[in-house]
Amino acid sequence: MTSYTQPCRMSEMAITVLAAELVSKIAAGEVVERPASVVKELVENALDAGATRVEITTEGGGVALVRVADDGRGIPAAEVELAFRRYATSKISSLEDLGRIVSLGFRGEALPSIVAVADVELWTAAGSDGAGTYLRLAKGRVLKREPCARPRGTTLTVRGLFRHLPARLKFLKSSHTENGHIANLVSQYALAFPGVCFSLTCDGHSSLQTSGRGDLRDAVREVYGPEVAQAMVQVHSGDGDIKVEGLVGPPSMERSSRRHVSFFVNTRSVRSALLLRATEQAYAGLLRQGRYPIVVAHVIVPADQVDVNVHPTKAELRFSQEQSVFVTVEQAIRAALGQTPLPGPKVVGFASSPADQQTMWMVSERQPTASNPAASSSLPVLRVLGQLSQTYIIAEGPEGLYLIDQHAAHERVVYERILDQWSGRHMEVQGLLQPISVELAPREQKLLEELEERLRQFGFHFEPFGDRSYLLRAIPAALAGTNGADALRSVLEDLDRSRRDVPWEESIAISLACHGAVRAGQVLAHEEMKGLIQQLESAREPRTCPHGRPTMIHLSSRQLEREFGRVG
Ligand code: ADP
Ligand code: MG
Prior knowledge:
Heat Shock Protein 90; formyl-coa transferase, domain 3; 34% helix; binds magnesium ion; 23 strands; binds adenosine-5'-diphosphate
């Protein structure tokens, strides 16, 4: 019998009420998970206070310092200490208020949670006479209070986050990663509040600056760059209770994660499976599998038809009229996409030439060779018959019919080629005659900085070109003929999301292959199909794409005979 030590689950201690300080740290854990949570709470307080300018500064990924300064309504001197008491809020006062929340905060938990896990200083003034209050707190207690001079508004600094909670500190990622989370978060507020001027400075570098002019397209330009802003299509819908306003990207501007799908319900940034499904349905058939659109949409719903009090960090919510919200959003996006060209109708095309009809697979010169035994064992020589739905190649072999997914098959071929080049230490690079300028979102820029060396090794050559812009001078040869800027973004996204158990070289190869491969919906000439099938025959694992999906469906001669009732 194998003996093992079981983790101790049974408490030996008698039941006691936990000390107040411990309780406040446990409660704080719900609100303050990482530095970005501090930024979130402070920015929301600034916005709730009606600020038109919000300046955010961080150091050391937000662990050493988070500072948020606003020009909002400030906290009156008499209420300053109260703001740090648990469940103290100026935003709701009754049970009815809870049913129609219009502010971002309402639980009165953020400030007490932050002071439980960091050192805090506050400068605030509620009037325009220049008279304000200064407060310093640590370990949840006020250490100093004195008058200070400042214009109306509030500045809060949070230092030494989780200094007294080493367990939490251990779980934080590198300051690059934490800065990435912060940049992403602030970008969302910039899109949610185009009328507010945001600035984010991380370790002395300006990461985001918005004009606050009030135009959503401006905000999109500031966050995602001019190319995206220009291509986005306006969404406008709803005369009833539920309205949708915003911008959506054309299907050609796809991304490899849902991160660029932003929904704001009554200005609150939310994750909502319902809204994602509505978006997916609106784009159904327009995007490749595993690709997502860029969406920045504001959903306006009467405050009493939405419950925001269902999630500890208020990231999720519940609609009382789910069906109406779904339909309104889906139809609004569909209508907007109607303005952009949709792919043509799917047709069945058999492109084989009469000459080809004569060439039987048996006499093909592409016989498996001794130098490539894998080819003979894994895939027989195939003869291309035609293309179906601009997506599948129809081919015949000695053992029946093959339907080959052109994208998946090409992905497999490109993937193996890239890995071969990598192991042979000779990456093929395509220099660009005309360098491409790439505008990156703050989060993408952080990723680029983090992954720069790896990208270079694989053939991306770029140099900084002003604020968050880069000049792309060369790309991996596997991407020749594609939009290098989009490819770079996809690779960044894919690497960020790749599974930890997959080596990074493989993740890059998978991502490049996916981007460099022909797409579904692309008409292929007969020669192109022949070339692709030839390459697939020589692949080491021709039957699956690098993501593990099948590249082909095989209907054996026996199966065909059975289906047609030729044999019993
Ligand atoms: P909540 O936002 O849920 O009310 P908080 O703990 O975040 O709870 O803040 C407590 C209170 O402090 C707020 O209700 C608000 O009155 C005041 N407050 C906090 N930050 C600011 C700010 N930047 N400007 C004005 N008032 C603020
Ligand atoms: Mg708050």
